[in-house]
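Issue 218. Parser rejects a valid record. Input:
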Amino acid sequence: MLKKLSALFAAVLLFTGCTTVDSTQKFNAVDLGNKEEKAVCQTYVEISGYCLFGLPLIVGSAKGDGQFTFFRFNLTNENVVYLLTRAVKAHGATRMINVHVNSTNTPTMFPFLSYCTIQGSGTGVRSKSAAMKQVQQEFAGF
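Output the parser choked on:
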């Protein structure tokens, strides 16, 4: 019996909530900025998990990619935007445009258990003046 419960718990952990953060810097020569700004990355964030009667069981964490937590409601706009801004700053962006956040709640095999997700995406841009300042700071020591 203990082996069956352990196997069930391991299977649930495999298919449970997780946080995904993914960015790309390849735009196939399509300019997403304007004359003063250049797009540096397009970033996607997803936090998902299972909720029982709307209360979280296992959901993704706001700490970052691949993280999860138990009994914490992390499926908020604030957490998605936090992860988005952290990821675009890591790519050198000074501003984020075209931000979109979407949440879904899908009932699973039980009517009281649901799979919840919140997804967000945004484009990180950097102004030409910010890029010049960064280059000057990087090469000031030479």
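Fixed in the parser; the record now loads. The mean pLDDT is 80.
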